Amino acid sequence: MQPYPGEMGSESVFFEFDEIQVGRTAELTHLLTEQDLQAFAELTGDFNPLHFDPVFARSMHFPKAPVHGMLSAVFVSTLIGMLLPGKGALWTSQTIQFLQPAYIGDTLRVWARVKQRSPALRMLVLTVEITNQQNQKLISGEASVKMTGMKQAESQEPNGSQVVLITGGGGVIGSAIARQLAADGHAVALTSYKNSQSAEEVAAEIVALGGRAISLQVDIREQAAVEAAVSRMEEMLGPVEAVVHCAAPSPSFGPFADLDWAALQSQLDVQVKGAFHCAQAVLPRMVEASAGSLLFVGSTVSDGQPPALQCAYVVAKTALTALARCLAVEYGPKGIRVNVVAPGMTLGGISDHLPEKAKMVARMQTPLRRLAEPADIAGVASFLLSSRARHVTGETLRVSGGTVMS
Hints:
Layout: E1 4-7, E2 25-31, H1 34-44, H2 54-59, H3 69-73, H4 75-82, E3 89-94, E4 97-98, E5 107-118, E6 123-131, E7 137-147, E8 163-167, H5 172-183, E9 187-192, H6 196-208, E10 213-217, H7 223-236, E11 242-245, H8 261-289, E12 292-297, H9 311-331, E13 336-343, H10 356-364, H11 374-384, E14 396-399
Parallel strand pairs: 1-2, 8-9, 8-11, 9-10, 11-12, 12-13, 13-14
Antiparallel strand pairs: 2-5, 3-7, 4-7, 5-6, 6-7
Helix pairs in contact: 5-6, 5-11, 7-8, 8-9
């Protein structure tokens, strides 16, 4: 990276956050004068004789009176506010090591390099050094800088078409989400393993309406299969910018005493392991782009007292929610959001396995007096993937008609 040199009194530069990448540098120079020393002392009230009396300074084993250490350090503020990042910069913290003193007549070279950037927080970490004309290092440290007063955060989020991977795209909820996202203008890839024909039909329907969609038969339990599907998506639609993980085996109902590990493992393999494989396949590119979104379809069975006789399903959904929260914490600083949409009992979902009387009781116990429809979940998914939810991550948004409140 080439530095952009600066000098005192020059006009402040202006950069958008995306223009400032790790490795960018800036520097300025300044000649220390008697006027600088006097002005600093009058401003701060620090008239320590060490800085003004050469005889006193020599008694302290200095060859001559050094200037105040902070007098040199204040030019870090000049560099931040004028050059890197420039206009709108807010200097939030600084570590300083004073290595050698500076003296009147020294030419300071103040230099900074971007060490780290956080798009989600619009923060930069800068490595800072100040040297003299003999290239002796006087000060070193790190500065944290927040970029304010620039383009609003929504400009960092895609407002137009995204490329979205939807697992379980042949299912009731997955297909509803695919239709909604396509209507929003996104390109969608529906993956399915057992419902591949349904996924193909939904993709064909979207294309017939003028949208962009493909269907892929993928066993998301296999990492290589997921990676191959992502590569295929990139070839046909472009880089994956969002993932909606809907895939889940049909739950089995029964007492724990009759539950074998294979049934529990089946739920974990599709729901948790599948989410794990999808995240690992798409996160590197999302990190590179400093943007992206993962949305897992959870369930309200993870809240409060779990329903009886659904141990495997409850365990898998709860683990999936925990995975989302862990990813949200780790990848939030990299500009990536991770959330969960948690349906309650939904028409066409688990409710199909229940007797009509049980569904009637569920309706009467729901404050809105109806069960969710797949379109209800799709609407929330649409919101969570949009720039309107740009400050939402690590959340579980429940679509239950009020059966769960928190």
